[in-house]
Amino acid sequence: MASVSLSSRLNKAVRQQYMSLPQGERVQVTYIWIDGSGEGLRNKTRTLDVEPQTIDDIPEWNFDGSSTYQAEGSNSDMYLVPVRMFRDPFTQDPNKLVLCEVLKYNRLPAETNHRMNCNKVMEQVKEHIIWFGIEQEYTLLGIDGHPYSWPTNGFPAPQGPYYCGVGADKAFGRDIVECHYKACLYAGVNIYGSNAEVMPSQWEYQVGPCEGIEMGDHLWVSRFLLHRVCEDFGVVATLDPKPMTGNWNGAGCHTNVSTKQMREEGGLEFIEQAIEKLSKRHKEHIQVYDPRGGKDNMRRLSGHHETSSIHDFSAGVANRGASIRIPRPVGQEKKGYFEDRRPSANCDPYAVTKAIAYTCLLHSEDMEESEEENIPAM
């Protein structure tokens, strides 16, 4: 029997009795933010007297940063600045979810607030209408840390029948996947699709296309929804890029990228130019493609299990063992997008999309130092 949380076994019928009570004109707004780990999400809820119509209707708030790895106890108040609003699929309309940036006491961005600098870069490249689509892989675990539905003292059958599989012996945890999908649609997250992945109990969903800063906003809220749905089912969704050692696939956050020029006739030329630029900054990108400066990806980017080597840059058409993949239809049509397969499942999408936009559209080897100073550092 899979290990699930005790909370998930509480009587949901009793809960529903209270959840269905009317709330008048007052509205619950749940503030969501990234904590000091750069991976974890936190949230808390307050009441507003009327339903907010835009993000400007939601006031700033604060929290104790000493309890989220973000401040010292002697100076612990941090600011929550609302940046994007979504519908709440858990308490439903008119209640809201709001993603926030975190500022320190001096109004400077917290160390794990990569959104602010990402937004600055996206504003500088706005004319290129850069689109992103991210494939978020994750693995379901019991609360004991063991993959959900795996044998307690052993392993399931080898990889092969699980990718896009169907059947009780091939797809583990589909209820969670489908509930998460519906929650994203209800909330207004731009979810594109989902599928079972190569390793059993591993799944993927895609978010996008999103323009500029919206990519990070929508992916982070989709992650919050995933963790929240898993909480209801009593299991854990881990974004660890290599949750199981041995002959099992890792988990990535493959990032698909295109600009207006790439999507137009003859766009392959601009795709190839971008790949050439990325090839010259491989090390810099690896450092921001997971929260630990590349250490997490060291376990995943081995050159095996549909990954490239972390030490080498490579690119190819329809090659899932390359750093950058050009999809076969793109190669045939000579326009479209490319896929950066290096980001880890637990990456910060703000750091990833900022790095790609900067390298492909702003960085130049002969750029003067004075020009570099005006661009937020990677």
Automatic annotation (TrEMBL):
GO CC annotation terms, alphabetical: cytoplasm
Single GO BP term: glutamine biosynthetic process
Domain GS beta-grasp: start-end pairs: 27-107
Catalysed conversion reaction: L-glutamate + NH4(+) + ATP = L-glutamine + ADP + phosphate + H(+)
A GO term for molecular function: glutamine synthetase activity
Record EC number: 6.3.1.2
InterPro entries listed in its UniProt record: Gln_synt_N (IPR008147), Gln_synt_N_sf (IPR036651), Gln_synth/guanido_kin_cat_dom (IPR014746), Gln_synth_cat_dom (IPR008146), Gln_synth_gly_rich_site (IPR027303), Gln_synth_N_conserv_site (IPR027302), Glutamine_Synthetase (IPR050292)
Domain of life of the native organism: Eukaryota
Recorded family membership: Belongs to the glutamine synthetase family.
Protein name: Glutamine synthetase
The gene coding this protein: LOC117539961
